[in-house]
Amino acid sequence: METEIDTQAIDTQAKVPMPAELAALVAGEATALDRLTGQFRTAAAADGLMDVAYRVVDSPVGALLLAGTERGLVRVAFAREGHAAVLDSLAATISPRILLAPARLDAAAREVEEYFARRRQAFDLPLDFRLATGFRREVLAHLPDIGYGHTASYAAVAALTSSPRAVRAVGTACARNPLPLVVPCHRVIRSDGSRGAYLGGADAKALLLALEAGTA
Amino acid sequence: MSRPVPPFEVLVASHGATVLRVCRALVGVQEADDVWQESFLAALRAYPASGNVRNWEAWLVAIARNKAMDHHRAAGRLPVPASDDGPEAAGCLAAAGGDDVVRSVEAGQDADRVWAALAKLPPKQREAVVYHHLAGLAYAEVAGLLGNSEASARRAASDGMRSLRAHLAQDREDCS
To answer: What biological-process GO terms show up in the record (chain B) (predicted)?
Structure first.
């Protein structure tokens, strides 16, 4: 429908060029906006309006998006997943009341940093598993049983679950793990000893296993 | 078919500046911060809005406009979107010193003088100039906010810009 296309065009169109007479009005706006958005995030959190808070941290496996709800960490995402796309998906599945709020994820950021510095072997964070349901959730619950520096095959993980022959489903559960790193799906490898796929990429999986083996 | 609702952070990042311009124009630079906060908190509280919002920027500007009206009602006065120094004082002050003159020539205009000139416009023209030329909304959206036709919005914005230029020119003469 034509009207539908029109309204979409309005939303994405280039800004109307500003007449020179008005240019002085927008000078110095950026400083005011930084202050205002900071105050706004604080007020939004205090009023219980921030359903999802997020921040991005640097790591040896690239920029990591950390997102949390009031229940705990809900999503860890690699850059290759597309952080904007991940946030869009959180908006659709959890709530669009999503704000950048670094302070709310201080604990998660600190533990991730400690992990990469080899000063932490297990994560001690409240986790929100709402993005994994059913069998996938069951698989994730077993992954922390694989100790730091160890690996297990997809088949071995399946053997721990209520469906011991669901090897492929274990692979799917790992591939869709909403909390990689923190829930260690990188420790699940193929029965032949090859590493297998990883949602952070094969290089990231190799790096994490080497890090934990002390050979990085 | 409903369109996907973006993370609210995207709205703050993409439209925060637009809303600030509108707030400053409608309630003055000093009061604008409070109205901006109230507007975004109200928007977040209502988010995602019921009904079919086609343009989030226009939706935010409409909320800011309402908050600005509330603000004026609470203060018991009519909109006077000028700097606290008053239009005349601000206008001549900016052109007083040699450096100021150079700077204001370089920057095109001094902000206080422009706010003051904007405040002299009739409300409809002022709002049309602010929504279209300063906030960058399309005439269709401006018409939605002003409750008139797209043609009327376009005319109000164009008349408003002409008056604004005349006021600024007059201002320069008065101060020289």
So the answer is: DNA-templated transcription initiation
